[in-house]
Amino acid sequence: MTSIDTVTLDVADPAAAERFYTAAFGLGALLRLRASQEPTTGFRGFTLSLGVSQPADVDALVTAAVDAGATVLKPAAKSLWGYGGVVQAPDGTIWKVATSAKKDTAPPSKRVDAVVLLLGVADVAASKRFYVDQGLTVAKSFGRRYVEFATGPVTLALYRRRALAKDLGVSPDGAGSHRITIAGPAFTDPDGFTWEPTAMANLS
Known about the structure:
The protein is an alpha/beta fold. The chain has helices at residues 14-24, 55-67, 124-133, 161-168, 198-201; strands spanning 7-11, 31-35, 40-42, 46-51, 71-78, 83-88, 94-99, 114-121, 138-142, 146-149, 154-160, 174-176, 180-183, 187-188, 194-196.
């Protein structure tokens, strides 16, 4: 099994991004930042999703992110599956904060229970085969719609690109660098997402 211990975001200003992420989410070593001016336009093809225990925790994290400079793409709201909202960080990364719970059972907190890296891919089945060939273990699979791998502490999941963009409230169009690197074995997947050994991915 391949474990994802960190993801690295390419940002124009690592110091500013560090201040934002510390104030907004406090993910510590799970998130690394690296200076880069790689060009990108539109949707970068992924989101980082934070799973929390209750709606009040979603509100706490969304509010903290907005106070630190994030833009709201979808306000936190109830849905059939729970409660969640979507924000875009100043560096352009899209974050979803969500819970399957529909009621609060404790005082609000900013505690994150799960971090999911959700890649928007052209062909879920083909990307699934690729990752299985790289040694990843499938944890959940819903045909050609969604796949999740056992890669904690950061869970890797695959979703159709257009469906992911729709869920986030953005256009699916985009080009250039994804501006994210996944810590693990060295390869580039069919949709251009890059994996690097941990020591390289964590350089800043």
